[in-house]
Every structure is written in C-alpha cells, then in structure tokens.
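help with this record:
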Amino acid sequence: MCANVFGVLKSLFGKPFDGGKRMDHGGPQDQQQHPMEQQQPYHPQHPAMMRLYEVQKEVSSLGPQVCTFSGLQNDREYKRMERELTQLLLQVDQVDTEGKLELQGARKRAAQEVEGLLRYLEENASHPSRLAIEELSIAARQLVDEQVVAPQRAGGVAEINDELVDTLQELVLRLTQIKTEGRVPLRKARYRALTRLCAVQDVLEGRTPQQTLSLPLSGDTHEAVNCINQVMVKVSMARSQLLALLMGLSGRDSCAHLSRILTELQVELDALDVSGNATIRNYRKQVVEEINGLLKHLDLEGEGDDTRRYDLAQNNSIREIEAVRAHVSHLREGVLRYCLMGDLGLRPKAELQSLLTHLDQVDTAKNPCIREARRRAVVEVQAVITFLDLREALACRQPGPDEHPSHRAVWLVLGSLSDLQAQVLGFDGKRADKSYIILEEMLTKQLLALDAVDPQGDESTKAARKQAVKFAQNILNYLDMKTDEWEY
C-alpha cells in the first residue's frame, strides 16, 4: 500500500503486504520468523502468491480513496468502495494456500489489510463527529432553503435579516467546535461544510448593501441602462442558484454551468459603451463587482482536496498564532512566579500589547477555524493583562475613611478573584479534575457574594460591582475555554 495511506493507517495495518515477508503487528509471533519462511521455498511466481500480488495492487489503488473519503454510509462512493473491498476480501479468502504456512501467513496479512480499510471506511463514515457535521449541515440547508432560496424560486424576495445572519454564524461556530481527533476524513468533512457555509454568509453579506442602493437606474438615462438592468436581474437569479448549489439544494445546476452564465454576463457588460457618463460607468462597475463576488465561490466542487487547506496544523497563520501562544505561556509563567513571591516587578504589559497587535495582523483568510484560533489566543493574552491590571490596582488601592461599606465589600471580592485568577491562569488540567471543580465552585461563590452586595444607592458601588461581575464571568469563561479540548 502507498506510503501516504499508511501514514494515516499505520496503527491499523502495520507495514504493507509484501508477498511473503512478515508484517510487524506488535505480537510475539510477528517478532520471530517461521523457520520455513526463512527458507522462502515459494517462488514469487507461485499462483497463490501472484493472486495476492494482484490483490495488493487493487488495495493500493483503493487505499488513498478510503483515507480521504469524507462522506456518509449512504453515499454512492461509500457503497462502491465497500463493495469493491468486500469483493477483494472474498478473493483473498478463495486463494488456495495448499495448507502451507507461508502462503497462509501471506493470505492472512492481505486479508488484514483489506479488513483494516473496511473498518477505517466505516468508522469515519459513521463517526459521531461526522454525524454531527451532517446534522449542522442539514440545519443550515433548511434555513437557507426556507428563508432565501424557496422565496426567490417562487418569484418573491428573500428578506435578509439579523436573525438569519446570527443563526448562520452560530452554526459556523458549532462546526468549528466539532472534534475530528486528527482524522483526515473528519477534518475534510468539517472543512467542506465550513467552506460552504462561510461562502453563503459572504454572498448574503455582499447582497445586503444592494437592497439600499437606488438601483436599477431609469432606462431613460442612457441606452445602456436597460441592458445593465436586465443583467442585474439575471445576477439576482444567479445568486439564488449559487446559494442553492452551496447548500446542495440544486440537483440540476452545476458550478461550471453557473460560472459560464456569469462569465457571459461579464462579457455582455464589457461590450457596453458607457463612455462619457460617470454614473452609468459606476452602475456597471457595481454589477461587475457583484458578478466577481459570485464567481469566486464557484470553485468549491474540488474544495478540500488539497490537504493543506483542511490540515490546519500546517497552516502558516496557525503557526503564527501558536508562536504567539507559546510566547504568552512563557510570560504567564514568569508573571505567576513573581506574583507568588509577592513581587510585581515583572509587568510585561507592553510586550503583551504588542502580541495583541501581532494577532490582529494574522491573516485568517476568512477561515472560521483560524478566526477561532486567533480569538482564543487573544483571550489568553487579555487574561494575563487583566490579571496584571487588577494586581496593580489592588496594590495601589488606598481606601479613605469615608469609603462606602458596599464599595469596600466589592473590593474584597476583587481581591479574592485576583487570587483565583492566578490559579486559573496556572491551571493545566481537565474538567473532570477535582481542582477544576473546586475553582469553578469558588468563582461561583464570588459571583454570589457580589450579587449579595447592596449598593444602597451609591453609584460608584453599582459601577464597581458591575465591573467585578463581568470580571468574574470572564475568569469562568477563560477556565471553560482552557478545558474545552478545542482543536483546529
């Protein structure tokens, strides 16, 4: 089997079948060769060995397809591969070994490879994460169909509102949080779903400004306006077709067909004579830009075939973010170490601010997973900054004799929160850990303590309590983020 296949399936298959040599399966029998195997009495031209070689070639051809298949068990491609692998397994079982141990061993290893591919194919297609991806994809498909595609097909106008945009964003966020366990098919499925959903967001966001423009223009203005108006109507129809394609709601159209239609519209616009009229030129320019915005989403049929796209561990932006996180971790350890000694001399706020600036400049390429990775890195930096700010404020605090008792109570809680935040910053466990449960309970108690503070009409106390509540909730959210086992 080819090397890239076994890079993924090494744990399942061991080394590729080699005709008569032993495979390393980790068992004691695999570490010793049978005496007769050392003699290798069977020539490679033996009929049984030749048949097993043929099976190996077919397995080598199917292996890469299995390793990158990202669909479900009811997909046609899944059924085809399952059928071909099952047939190979039957062919291996029918190989006549003549009762010889060497041939039996070779046949067994060939069967194990085929069974391993079948198992890998089934595990990924029925994996809970794959089913979760499909569930969210179906929800997005129904949403777009009901609120955008169906109304336009019926001759109406889809209403793009904040609720629709927010719901789509929530689905994108939930997709980014699905764990793939590093499996290539699951990464690929998640990437494909995210790519399409983000493209729908982009199309809808690009369409929203068009609703506020005073277009189309009157046909009396210029002889070319009627033509541009007609193109604009066709572009609106193409937009609906594109959304249907992205969400799998179109069984007849294809990306290539729609691309040809939009390209023809561009040619039609380019042929128009709009010289001498800046308003018409600007109108045509806006329609052309709209077409270009739709065209850029029509390369999705092969999207995700390039491993570099969905294997974000190799992404340059992710590497930048990880380098920042490593730097933050180093600074955080130093800050906590100094604070443990009661020394506030280490205050790398300027360095932390520069890291925030660096993160802001990281190119996310509109990839939601990269955006989420950057957001989490920003939260890590901000957690250290807020910790330093509160420590400094506590150290400089000089309450006067006239300080309101409720205001003093808030500051007492802030002092406890500062100590708890130090523990949260240094926490490196899981949610099931006892220390996590204790931290969560203590933070919740501080929130209850703040809730019990009666400002008694004092405005400064109200403001201080509000900030303290937000601060405590941010610490809880940060603790939750550190233990949610999120992955790229």
The mean pLDDT is 80. The CA atoms of residues 308 and 314 lie 6 Å apart.
